[in-house]
Amino acid sequence: MEKVILDVDTGIDDALAILLAIESKQLNILGITTVNGNVPLDYVVKNTKKVLKLADRNDIPVYRGANRPLIRESLHEFAVHGDDGLGGALVNLTVSTECPDSFAPDYIIQQARKHTGELTLIMVGPLTNLALAVRKEPEIANKIKQVVVMGGVVSEGGKGNISPTAEFNIYADAEAAKIVFHSGLPIKLVSLDVTMKTFLTIEDIEKLQGTKYYDFVLTSTEIYRNFSYEKYGQNGSALHDPLTVGIVLEPSLVTTRKYFVDVETSGELTYGQTICDYRNIWNKEPNVEICESVDAERFISLFINTLKDN
């Protein structure tokens, strides 16, 4: 099985991504690293532990990571994920928030050394932990099999979700993203260009009736679905983070191509923008594999069937 570390800022779609990764039975989840993002780090740790308890996988270790971006002040998305980050879906579930002593970036370094050429990092939050890891140990870029990142908006300029030009995960710590993109790591970028095509509708959710995840998915996504309808006129939940896991499970869900991609860190209107040199104007070596299209229907079926069968 593929050895993976999930790096999360557990809000609603992170939670769904964790469930997909677990219930696929195809991934050896070595650990989950947490990072400040959708909600503050303490919320992220608690939410991650709650999701693991829901899935009866308390054996998966959870590591505390960066509690703020490298430079900027923290940014959170309570309007999208609710006051607790999970839309109130697991408010009555109690968990211990104790974690192993290892700091998440150090854990990533340790596992990259231990599993040279075998480790996949699934990054579905701001890239602060990975940036700290590669700054401390740059050589891990040659030891990691692949880094699959949910982040950015590439060809759909002007259709960001935190600003017209930026996606939340990159915008929340653009300096960290820039470090990661220039690190030499083998990166596959799962951007809004494809994730916004994977909408989980209420009709999809109803197919989970009778399963142990129905109540959680229905309740947790309500605030998310309402936000999407008010903001984008689309009644559903974009499966940003679950698609990122899905691509590790089934790479053929997407078509990809490598380009040189950089991150804007100083623009007044464009901070956090992921800029892709489609025409090779800068004449630089490609550093990021971009997901250009997605079989959204097949992915939604994969997601529903995986949760339904468990």
Automatic annotation (TrEMBL):
<dbReference type="Pfam" id="PF01156">
    <property type="entry name" value="IU_nuc_hydro"/>
</dbReference>
<feature type="domain" description="Inosine/uridine-preferring nucleoside hydrolase">
    <location>
        <begin position="4"/>
        <end position="300"/>
    </location>
</feature>
<keyword id="KW-0378">Hydrolase</keyword>
<protein>
    <submittedName>
        <fullName>Nucleoside hydrolase</fullName>
    </submittedName>
</protein>
<dbReference type="InterPro" id="IPR023186">
    <property type="entry name" value="IUNH"/>
</dbReference>
<dbReference type="InterPro" id="IPR036452">
    <property type="entry name" value="Ribo_hydro-like"/>
</dbReference>
<keyword id="KW-0326">Glycosidase</keyword>
<dbReference type="GO" id="GO:0008477">
    <property type="term" value="F:purine nucleosidase activity"/>
</dbReference>
<dbReference type="GO" id="GO:0006152">
    <property type="term" value="P:purine nucleoside catabolic process"/>
</dbReference>
<dbReference type="InterPro" id="IPR001910">
    <property type="entry name" value="Inosine/uridine_hydrolase_dom"/>
</dbReference>
<dbReference type="GO" id="GO:0005829">
    <property type="term" value="C:cytosol"/>
</dbReference>
